[in-house]
TrEMBL record:
Pfam families: HTH_20. Residues 255-346 form the HTH arsR-type domain. The keyword Ribosomal protein does not apply. The lineage of its organism: Bacteria, Bacillati, Bacillota, Clostridia, Lachnospirales. GO terms for molecular function: DNA binding; DNA-binding transcription factor activity. InterPro entries: ArsR-like_HTH, HTH_ArsR_DNA-bd_dom, Metal_resp_trans_reg, WH-like_DNA-bd_sf, WH_DNA-bd_sf. Keywords: DNA-binding, Transcription, Transcription regulation. It comes from the Bacteria. This is Transcriptional regulator. It comes from Vallitalea longa.
């Protein structure tokens, strides 16, 4: 369901969207990493108890290549999917061009040309992570498998949840639509999230870096009702002319003072001098345990202990290179430290 109007004062097409498909994918995002989503933590714990071992395994299997399922939200850029059911959405995804399907599902992590080379010519770059390579060896089989998994999760588990939350979300959609029409669209945007700043000439979105959109360029705005993604400031900006934001909606009660476990894990991991030295070295280049031990004049056992803590906090990743396991710094985590702090404070 969507409601739209044209803001004549600012010359902006404005859309308010409730999509059951968005909620479905949002729920998978939470289940993949529920300890970061305090408003939905208890919901996720209860849902996980109901899931079959196979579904739980598949949620974890697909979470990395889909950017914790956020990549699958990209398909809603197609307005033809806005007013149809989840079943119809999944059917339409079966017909999406296979290159586009992987590019959107991977959330742009793998560039389009690399996907074309992989699928059309069976050529895989040496730098492409192995889990992405495996997906594209049999691309149509992969698409069938992931969509089959989503269907099973929807019909067997999520459909009942949606029957309770959908009326609340639709009422919220209508309320927010009329609220935005009554006030300036920029005042409305500003109230959506503490990390949105509206100035005289632009909108600043403060994430791991600042994204900005100039008011003079903005032509279209889409606001999606959402009950899962919070506390993320989820935005989609295209050519500075189009923005897509979520309207956080709280379906369940929660302890707002509780610090997300993954955030606590990150800050604990960096609160050590040796681990900070490891991070600094990995910032310069990927290294093996042996090379780090030589650099820092420590034993390999000591380095391994610290790397395990950094790996468990998702600060580093590991990639096999011949006989060695090289550790890579996930710079996005470092860039996001201030963002994690503000997500909690806000």
């Amino acid at each position: 369901m969507h409601l739209s109007y044209f803001d004549a004062d600012n010359k902006i097409d404005v859309h308010f969207l409730y999509s059951p498909y968005h909620e479905l994918i949002g729920s998978l995002h939470v289940l993949a990493k529920y300890d970061h989503h305090m408003p939905r933590e208890q919901w996720a714990i209860n849902m996980i108890k109901k899931l079959s071992p196979e579904i739980k395994e598949k949620i974890l299997l697909y979470k990395d290549i889909t950017h914790q399922y956020l990549g699958l939200l990209n398909f809603l850029d197609n307005k033809d999917l806005w007013d149809i059911s989840i079943s119809e959405c999944l059917y339409e995804l079966e017909k999406v061009n296979i290159i586009d399907f992987f590019y959107l599902t991977f959330n742009g992590v793998i560039n389009r040309q690399s996907i074309i080379n992989a699928i059309k010519s069976n050529y895989y770059s040496d730098t492409m992570p192995s889990d992405y390579v495996e997906c594209m060896k049999k691309p149509y089989d992969f698409r069938e498998q992931i969509l089959s998994f989503i269907r099973e999760y929807y019909y067997n588990y999520f459909a009942m949840e949606l029957s309770f939350s959908e009326p609340v979300l639709i009422r919220k959609l209508k309320k927010e639509y009329y609220r935005c029409k009554e006030i300036s669209i920029y005042d409305y945007i500003k109230m959506l999230h503490p990390r949105i700043e509206v100035t005289d000439d632009r909108i600043n979105f403060h994430k791991y870096r600042t994204f900005e959109v100039y008011k003079k360029d903005l032509q279209e705005a889409v606001f999606k009702i959402d009950s899962f993604i919070n506390p993320h400031l989820l935005i989609n900006i295209e050519a500075k002319k189009y923005i897509e934001l979520i309207i956080p909606t709280y379906i369940t009660s929660y302890d707002s003072d509780k610090l997300p476990a993954d955030t606590l894990s990150v800050f604990k991991a960096i609160a050590d001098e040796t681990r900070m030295k490891i991070i600094r070295n990995l910032y310069r280049e990927p290294m093996s345990t042996q090379k780090l031990a030589d650099k820092l004049n420590l034993t390999e056992a000591c380095i391994s202990k610290h790397l395990k803590i950094l790996f468990n906090a998702s600060i580093v990743t590991k990639v096999r290179d011949g006989n060695y396991m090289n550790y890579h710094l996930d710079q996005m985590i470092i860039d996001s430290l201030v963002m994690y702090m503000y997500e909690y404070l806000n």
